[in-house]
Design brief:
The protein has five helices and five strands; from the N terminus they run H-E-H-E-H-E-H-E-H-E. Helix 1 packs parallel to helix 2 and helix 4 runs parallel beside helix 5. It has about 160 residues and is α/β, with parallel strands linked by helices.
Length: about 160
């Protein structure tokens, strides 16, 4: 497992520097990817692209592709998508995008933190797996404990 780039600041887009981004757990994400060796990675809720960069850094030497889904990507993410051919940026809500995308080998779910959206994302992934060979992708979920587990917070 290789650590993230030393110049990478996981708090760059974390206004309160609370460590709310999955980027603060980059070594865990990279370790899971090393174990699963996915050829395709889907990121739901890419925001400014902090985790997207980690995924791309892992994907490049492994020949994997990354798809990021975010209905309102920040300028940093759109610039990253313009720079990187190995990144597809889908600018729509995850529940709509997941109806069309190919089932990935790994999915990072960190978008709208409410029961309906997350359960629909997981249902759509399971539905695609059932339609295929039944194999589910590696799924990494973020923001599943307090305070998210006890309230429905809608991004939009």
């Amino acid at each position: 497992m290789s650590p993230p780039d030393e110049e990478f600041d996981p708090y760059a887009n974390d206004i309160g520097r609370w460590g709310a981004s999955l980027a603060t757990h980059a070594e865990l994400v990279v370790g899971c990817l090393d174990a699963a060796k996915p050829r395709s990675i889907l990121e739901v809720g890419a925001y400014a692209g902090d985790v997207t960069r980690i995924l791309l850094d892992w994907a490049a030497p492994h020949g994997a592709r990354v798809t990021a889904v975010d209905p309102g990507p920040q300028e940093e993410l759109t610039s990253l998508a313009d720079e990187r051919e190995d990144l597809e940026l889908i600018r729509e809500p995850s529940v709509e995008a997941l109806k069309r995308v190919t089932l990935p080998d790994a999915a990072v779910i960190d978008g709208d933190h409410n029961y309906y959206t997350v359960s629909e994302e997981l249902r759509l992934i399971a539905e695609k797996a059932d339609a295929g060979d039944g194999s589910l992708p590696l799924i990494l979920l973020h923001d599943v404990s307090w305070p998210h587990a006890r309230r429905d917070s809608y991004y939009s």
